[in-house]
């Protein structure tokens, strides 16, 4: 599913240049659940952005679903993101004026799916994440956990090959965090590939594999001794 070889990422130039990634190589198979960990400045978010096709490396090669990403133009890259990738962000990134169903259906605007079909699919996904009764509510009318469930439904609406979750429980209390992690575990068991950035060992323990980063490098890549379920 994912193959990265000798990725480097530099920001700035000259004396002020910062090397965010240094010779990072990894492979992630289909249906893996991987947690990427590290302190602030470790490079984990930079790596996530490159793997999610939100940024490009300064050098090295990245393949997603058999495509060499560096060979794609902007239009093809946008199509790759829209067709193969689902994103879940810590701050939800929901549009405040749209209902839950409209937020979930938003990525389908860039496809050939008719608006009625898009809303129908969004409603089905909201049912799956336990929010069918909130489909007409706007983000400010929902709790943090409910908003994250909407974000998860939106990440699934294009039936992506891989889901990238960036600190998906970062703004949630412990009880709601467990509920969201149970949902991610369920998605993984249904066949989804999940790559999650987190700084919490307790959250990383839900994954089957943990990659630990420091100073832009992978320091450890190991299977969890006991993969948890919520």
From TrEMBL:
GO terms for molecular function: ATP binding; ATP hydrolysis activity; transmembrane transporter activity. Keywords: ATP-binding, Nucleotide-binding, Transport. GO terms for cellular component: plasma membrane; transmembrane transporter complex. InterPro entries: AAA+_ATPase (IPR003593), ABC_transporter-like_ATP-bd (IPR003439), ABC_transporter-like_CS (IPR017871), ABC_transpr_LolD-like (IPR015854), MacB-like_ATP-bd (IPR017911), P-loop_NTPase (IPR027417). Residues 2-230 form the ABC transporter domain. CDD domains: ABC_MJ0796_LolCDE_FtsE. It comes from the Bacteria. Pfam families: ABC_tran. The keyword Transport applies. PROSITE patterns: ABC_TRANSPORTER_1, ABC_TRANSPORTER_2. Belongs to the ABC transporter superfamily. Macrolide exporter (TC 3.A.1.122) family. This is Macrolide ABC transporter ATP-binding protein. It comes from Arsukibacterium ikkense.
């Amino acid at each position: 599913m994912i193959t990265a070889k000798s990725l480097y990422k530099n920001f700035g130039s000259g004396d002020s240049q910062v090397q965010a990634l240094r010779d990072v190589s990894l492979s992630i198979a289909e249906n893996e659940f991987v947690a990427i960990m590290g302190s602030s400045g470790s490079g984990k978010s930079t790596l996530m952005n490159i793997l999610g096709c939100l940024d490009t490396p300064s050098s090295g090669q990245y393949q997603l679903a058999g495509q060499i990403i560096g060979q794609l133009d902007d239009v093809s890259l946008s199509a790759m993101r829209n067709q193969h990738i689902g994103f879940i962000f810590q701050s939800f990134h929901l549009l405040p004026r749209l209902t839950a169903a409209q937020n979930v259906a938003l990525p389908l605007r860039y496809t050939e799916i008719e608006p009625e079909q898009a809303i129908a699919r969004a409603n089905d996904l909201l049912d799956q994440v336990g929010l069918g009764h909130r489909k007409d509510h706007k983000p400010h009318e929902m709790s943090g956990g409910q908003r994250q469930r909407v974000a998860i439904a939106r990440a699934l609406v294009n039936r992506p090959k891989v889901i990238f979750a960036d600190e998906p429980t970062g703004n949630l209390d412990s009880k709601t965090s467990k509920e969201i992690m149970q949902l991610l575990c369920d998605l993984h068991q249904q066949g989804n590939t999940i790559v999650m950035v987190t700084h919490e060992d307790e959250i990383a323990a839900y994954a089957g594999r943990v990659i630990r980063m420091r100073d832009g490098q992978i320091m450890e890549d190991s299977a969890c001794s006991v993969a948890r379920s919520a």
